[in-house]
Amino acid sequence: MPKLPTSGLQVLRRPTLNITPSTVSSPSASPLLPQTQLRHATFIPRHRRPYKFTQLVQLSDGSTYTVRTTSPVAFHKSAKDTRNHILWQPTDRSLRNVEVDEAGKLAAFRERYGRGWDAEEPAADAAPAEAAAEAKKEDDPFDSLVGLISDFAAGTTNNTAGGLSAKEQAKKDKGGKKK
């Protein structure tokens, strides 16, 4: 490849700012060095502001309100809110149902393991002194530990849950499928 002429190299250079000696204000600047302009972009940090959509929220009682949110869904139906939660409505009697078993899992558990796992509520007509003494007796971890050790040493399996163990239940289920 043939070499380019030297006159062509001057055409390919960047544009320069020619400074004549009469325009140079400082004696240290040399008129022989070409001066080029440099401009770097200045970074200005700005906060990110995501796009906000308008969303209509419907509460459990049917009332609605509008919010601005980053979710693109136009309509949101709230399952639990301030209208149907015991934390927000402590005086509402309909919300005091402790055992909400919508899927039937609690009933299936009780069918398999019995009601021994249910939380026991103290009787309302019992005297407060009797209830306190009974609670103290139940709270003593040493008595329950001694009873557990003595049952294990005697070889008895005191199943207080009222249901079958997991192995017994599996055998029962397996036996029922063969028939």
TrEMBL record:
GO molecular function terms listed in the Swiss-Prot or TrEMBL record: structural constituent of ribosome
GO biological process, one term: mitochondrial translation
Residues in the signal sequence: none
InterPro entries given in the database record: Ribosomal_bL31m (IPR034600), Ribosomal_bL31m_N (IPR048874)
Entry superkingdom: Eukaryota
Domain Ribosomal protein bL31m N-terminal as annotated: residue spans: 50-90
Cellular-component GO terms for this entry: mitochondrial large ribosomal subunit
Compositionally biased region (Low complexity): 20-32
Region of interest (Disordered), ranges: 1-32, 120-139, 155-179
Annotated PANTHER family: 54S RIBOSOMAL PROTEIN L36, MITOCHONDRIAL, LARGE RIBOSOMAL SUBUNIT PROTEIN BL31M
Protein name: Ribosomal protein bL31m N-terminal domain-containing protein
Gene source species: Triangularia setosa
